[in-house]
Amino acid sequence: MTQHSPKRILVTGAAGFIGFHLSQALLARGNTVIGLDNLNDYYDVSLKEARLNQLINKPYFEFVKINLADRSAMEGLFAEKEFDVVINLAAQAGVRYSLTNPHAYVDANLVGFMNILEGCRHQKVKHLVYASSSSVYGANTSMPFSVHDNIDHPVSLYAASKKANELMAHTYSHLYGLPTTGLRFFTVYGPWGRPDMALFLFTRAILAGEPIDVFNHGRMRRDFTYIDDIVEGVIRTADHTATSDPNWSGDHPDPGSSAAPYRIYNIGNNTPVELMSLIATLENALGKKAKKNMLPIQPGDVPATWANVDALIQDVGFKPETPIEVGVQRFVDWYRNYYRC
């Protein structure tokens, strides 16, 4: 990565999977990082605390425990600190969880993001980068998914909340000239990953000799993207402040850019992998076969994802390329070491 002058960067969700890795990478290149998290119990809090413990004593890292939806606390944070760049990764995650806990998504992903936008506007932050999701493509079936595609048919409230973030960001880019960049992440995996994700669930079950739930009878395809590639993509796009697109036209509006300083990028491996292939790769890495419980597709799930990353390559010269075999082995090595199994 290119060395830049030290910037003060707010990373929300710093105790989360992506936020933890991103904070490490930013600190390693000399940035000052203020890491925000509310350490909620959506999944094992001890894993979040263990990630945070890797960061907490590093020079130029400061942790603040705040809930994004707490308007007065967020106003106080932006009033007290000055940020050059804000990278918003904090969100209520998970497609299936949104079916049973919809209000959590409104609080974190809508109210929380509103507080981020207002903070950035009033403090004149130079660039807001925020996590969107491949789930925004919803019912789209034309592959690979492109940032130039219409995304008006989400199939989960989680996806709808992420599309709403993109629309809210565009409004602030248009009204206040706030440069915003939305990043649609495609199935992120790797060491320190989320326990609610398939790779983590499968690894735990296989090692315990328990069956794994294989949805859509194994016919799911996902563009699995290794964490280091996600982090590289986030940093490169954060360094590349969003600008207006001189070719944008209201007659033929391009969803991926705007006359305002607004950009959307996919960050994905551009190589969809069938679920059964992922399982076989994991079995090889673990040296143990899985017992499979074949199930139909779940409500809110999409059968396939595949990222078109042409815009990312064109604008920041980066394309994720870590092979699934390499990434899965690194995850397994971390898992065995962390859980001593």
Q: The biggest beta sheet, please?
A: 7 strands, parallel
Strand content: 15-25%
The end-to-end span amounts to 35 Å
Biggest sheet, spatial arrangement of strands: 3-2-1-4-5-6-11
Order of helices and strands: EHEHEHEHHEHEEHEEEHEEHEHH
The percent range for helix content is 40-55%
- Low-confidence parts: none
Count of strand segments: 13
What Rg is obtained from the alpha carbons, in whole angstroms? 19 Å
- Helix vs. strand class: alpha/beta
Number of helices: 11
Averaging pLDDT over every residue, what do you get?
A: 95
* Shape, per Cα inertia axes: globular
Description:
The structure is a single chain. With 341 residues, the protein is α/β, with parallel strands linked by helices. It contains 11 helices and 13 strands. It has helices spanning 17-28, 45-55, 71-80, 97-100, 102-122, 157-176, 198-208, 227-239, 275-286, 310-316, 324-339; strands spanning 8-12, 32-37, 61-65, 85-88, 127-133, 180-185, 188-189, 212-214, 221-222, 225-226, 262-267, 273-274, 292-294. Strands 3-2-1-4-5-6-11 form a 7-stranded parallel sheet, with helices on both faces. The protein has a two-stranded parallel ribbon with strand order 7-10. A two-stranded parallel sheet has the order 8-13. Helix 1 packs parallel to helix 2 and helix 9 packs across helix 11 (324-339). The longest helix is centred in the N-terminal third of the chain and has 21 residues, at 102-122. The protein is globular and about 55 Å long.
